[in-house]
Write a structure and sequence with these properties.
This is PLP-dependent aminotransferase family protein. One of its GO terms (molecular function) is transaminase activity. InterPro entries: Aminotransferase_I/II_large (IPR004839), HTH_trans_reg/aminotransferase (IPR051446), Tscrpt_reg_HTH_GntR (IPR000524). With 487 residues, this protein is an alpha/beta fold. The protein folds into three domains: 72 residues, Winged helix-like DNA-binding domain superfamily/Winged helix DNA-binding domain (Arc Repressor Mutant, subunit A, Orthogonal Bundle); 244 residues, Aspartate Aminotransferase, domain 2; 105 residues, Aspartate Aminotransferase, domain 1, CATH 3.90.1150.10. It contains 15 helices and 15 strands. An eight-stranded mixed beta sheet has the order 4-11-10-9-8-5-6-7. The chain has a three-stranded antiparallel beta sheet with strand order 12-13-15, with no helix packed on it. Helix 2 packs across helix 3 and helix 6 packs parallel to helix 12.
């Protein structure tokens, strides 16, 4: 039993901030999650000032009566989200983003719910690091088929009733409740629009926001959004990134109206956008009418270390963030069910101008997924996935560190999702490494392939390693073959 101390004012460390918390109020949160929330709240409220030093892990743990691991996990999560930073041998400090808060949204009359329809590759390679194919062993076939049978027996009338344009209410309600329980997001079901894949939803957004706007994408970034924007003949700017994400001054110079980003796990670099840059982006969006941020949260449930990073949507006070997510990562790549969350100002124009579209996901899939979420089966499945991919990642990294490749390899961005970056320190040109790997039945995709235009020289021989379809029993042999490509 942990000895949870209740105290009023305690100076935890000479020169460090004075922090007091009552850990008896943690409720259903784990101790480290509650401690993380408490520190975050004090930072946001200004109780902890920018640049202020936090207590050491050991001193803090001793005064709270908890383990050092509890404090260590809380600090690690705060660093990942950008609220604090560490300086080796000096300690932990509060980050400075005090001047980057977005303007609050003007009062917008609630849109009447009465006007809203709420119801009714297979690869031949020995190792293919470009593939995100889901293994059939991971899909919950037995549970899914049981839920389908229940739906076929219980919901025959609903299955034969045409779905509203935004999707059946049962699924939208289930998603809204899931987001509230597990992501801390407060959304109404009618804000959620269901579609067969994010590509379809991008098309709807272009029609909703306008084809005369300037859209912007991350550089480097996932190439498909730009291709979709180009197919709709809308102007699209490519915005360079630094270590915190897209650069806001470049957004201004490009005259962008809408920016498409992956802030919680940038693809392909793996960057987690810190809280300071998030507020900077929100401030950019709030400075001009018609600006919006598309937050693509494509693999948020699969963060393998710590808690999922809070969404940009959850701190948006101006109604400027359009949130998007998909079930293709958590269920399987062939389940084409995605959704977006429209901010309040966009609801009326969407339902007035685009409600003639039929929902592109069948009722059978929508009702099945709704019940799958409602009964807690989706949560259990995601927990199983995290465990599976964490073990797969760890086994591959262990094989790499035990191989001759260790001295010339560097791993980054391995905390979340299905991919990480592998940097090979070798004088062998990138094109030669890729060709040699292909001759050894290994498919590599370089980071430079995700740049628009010429990639900078420093990203040569950095590779995007998607490991979801990797057979870990081959990990040792894969490392041997990769090593042979570098000599």
């Amino acid at each position: 039993m942990l000895n949870l101390k209740i105290f009023s004012q305690v100076s935890l460390q000479k020169g460090a901030a004075v922090i007091t918390y009552n850990l008896m109020n943690s409720g259903s949160d784990s101790l480290y999650a509650y401690l993380c929330k408490s520190i975050k709240r004090d930072i946001l409220h200004g109780t902890l000032k920018p640049g202020e030093r936090l207590p050491s892990k050991r001193t803090f743990a001793s005064n709270l009566g908890v383990s050092v691991v509890t404090v260590e996990n809380a600090y690690a999560q705060l660093i990942a989200e950008g609220y604090i930073y560490s300086i080796p041998k000096r300690g932990f400090y509060v980050a400075d983003f005090s001047n980057l808060t977005a303007q609050p949204q003007k009062e917008i009359p609630a849109f009447s719910e009465e006007k809203i329809p709420l119801t009714g590759g297979d690869s031949s390679y020995f190792a293919d690091f470009s593939s995100n194919q889901t293994s059939s062993d991971l899909f919950p076939f037995t549970i899914w088929s049981k839920v389908i049978r229940e739906i076929l027996n219980d919901s025959r009338v609903q299955l034969m009733t045409n779905s509203p344009c935004g999707g059946i209410f049962a699924l939208r309600e289930s998603i809204a409740q899931y987001l509230k329980d597990f992501r801390g997001m407060s959304v109404r079901p009618e804000q959620i629009i269901i579609g067969a894949g994010t590509e379809y939803l991008y098309g709807l957004l272009i029609q909703l926001l306008g084809s005369d706007r300037m859209y912007a994408v991350e550089n480097p970034g996932y190439r498909k959004p730009e291709r979709i924007y180009n197919s709709y003949h809308v102007p699209c700017a490519r915005i360079s990134m630094d270590e915190a994400g897209v650069q806001v001054p470049e957004l201004e110079r490009a005259g962008a109206d809408i920016v498409h980003i992956t802030p919680s796990h940038q693809y392909p670099t793996g960057i987690v956008m810190p809280i300071s840059r998030r507020y900077e982006l929100l401030a950019w969006a709030s400075r001009k009418d018609g600006r919006y941020i598309i937050e693509d949260d494509y693999d948020s449930e699969l963060r393998l270390s710590g808690q999922p990073i809070p969404t940009l949507h959850s701190i948006d006070m101006s109604g400027k963030v359009i949130y998007m997510n998909t079930f293709t990562k958590t269920l399987c790549s062939t389940v084409r069910i995605s959704y977006m969350i429209l901010p309040q100002p966009l609801l009326k124009p969407f339902y007035e101008n685009l409600s003639f579209y039929s929902c592109t996901v069948s009722n059978f899939e929508q009702y099945t997924l709704a019940r799958f979420i409602e009964e807690g089966k989706f949560e259990s499945h995601v927990n199983r996935l995290r465990s599976h991919y964490r073990k797969k990642r760890d086994m591959f990294l262990e094989a790499l560190h035990s191989s001759r490749l260790q001295d010339m390899a560097e791993i980054s961005g391995s905390e979340a999702g299905f991919h990480f970056l592998l940097t090979l320190r070798t004088d062998v040109p990138q094109e030669t490494v890729i060709a040699r790997a292909r001759s050894k039945s290994i498919k590599l995709v370089p980071l430079s392939a995700y740049y628009y235009g010429d990639a900078p020289e420093h990203v040569q021989n950095i590779y995007v390693m998607n490991f979801s379809s990797l057979e870990v029993s081959r990990a040792e042999e894969i490392c041997k073959r990769l090593y042979a490509c570098c000599g």
